[in-house]
């Protein structure tokens, strides 16, 4: 009996120590050693590391699984966390669409058979899935800016069409919406129960996958919303640059960045051998296979646990996938180091950041319009914004990625406002270029709004070589 009691006591003590350790890790109370230059090329930890499961070296399979973002248990989230004397004023959400069917097919192979109907007894599932479908069926003819009204409000094809949102993609954003509802509506009462249409700002590109992703998140956020209060605006550009899209210098940065990508690929002999092997399997020229962007289709096979395609010449396999995925990771690393993409990102992200700052300033002045803004977008939307903000360690936007700007008011000093920036639930505010030194120089626990305003209105152009405004930076001669 004595032995049994001691055993139970030791077991309880071990469980308590494990709980305390995990709690300390969760709240970032255990210091993490960082290399002098901010990263170690062999064990490059990036935003949202998991100290338990993340491998010690870059692993293409681990990175691909994170990219898939298969819905499972509820993720931890730091949205809505602030000192008790701060009041939430407005929230601005940028999302990448959820899981989709490929945009490209591997030549001479059968398309992966993925069902894009929404079915209750198929995983992944969400408790609001059936209600979402029912509510979308009531929205036909709703008020959407042209040409959005011609798009389906939810996916419905037994064999997915190219680029179509899948059930996984819908569930990902139902989860995002419910998470944000629990934090911003139930906890912080961001919107009143009788919210008005002008308190929401909704914008999406003209793709069914972005519209449907936005609607799924919105339904999780505002279940059974009144269709008469909803108005999605159409954004023709993936950069969300509205009327400020003409920017010759931005395009020049992009051309130089694409040249860098090409030269890096030429240096990767293993990648070229892999493309050659795959081209032989599907019996097409290597250039044709590469042009078909096979990684896009292979990621669909991987994320949906569907076997890679085979032909009479053999099978595309996991080793091929790992080589191409690893090259993507290396390309992303070099992209950050070479800084050519940064120039493109600063000019590409400025219009949408400028809009967001303008909305924040109006909210800080006491205006009650557009308290919740949602931009349903693409990886090529979020990636420049992340780079422009200085979040060089941020992972490439996964399916259903979310980037959130929160505006807070100090109740003790009502004239002062602060911002928080979160990426996939992680507070990255003090990783941004405009606020990374703030907490070392100031006792204030959050980043002042004026830091972000100064960055968008001035510092973004200084980083581009001394221009003072967006137009001049876009048309600077002698680049």
Question: How would you summarize the topology of this molecule?
Answer:
Blueprint: H1 2-26, H2 60-68, E1 86-96, H3 129-137, H4 167-187, E2 200-205, H5 208-221, E3 232-235, H6 248-267, H7 269-282, H8 286-291, H9 294-303, E4 310-311, E5 314-315, H10 318-338, H11 340-364, E6 372-377, H12 379-388, E7 402-410, E8 417-423, E9 426-427, H13 438-441, E10 447-448, H14 449-462, H15 470-474
Parallel strand pairs: 1-6, 2-3, 2-6
Antiparallel strand pairs: 1-7, 4-5, 7-8, 8-9, 8-10
Helix pairs in contact: 4-5, 6-11, 7-10, 11-12, 11-14
Give the tags.
15 helices; alpha/beta; single chain; two-stranded antiparallel sheet; eight-stranded mixed beta sheet; 479 residues; 11% strand
Description:
By secondary structure, the protein is α/β, with parallel strands linked by helices. It is 43% helix and 11% strand. The protein is built from 15 helices and ten strands. It has helices spanning 2-26, 60-68, 129-137, 167-187, 208-221, 248-267, 269-282, 286-291, 294-303, 318-338, 340-364, 379-388, 438-441, 449-462, 470-474; strands spanning 86-96, 200-205, 232-235, 310-311, 314-315, 372-377, 402-410, 417-423, 426-427, 447-448. A hairpin with a 2-residue loop joins strand 4 (310-311) and strand 5 (314-315). The longest helix is centred in the first third of the chain and has 25 residues, at 2-26. The termini are far apart.
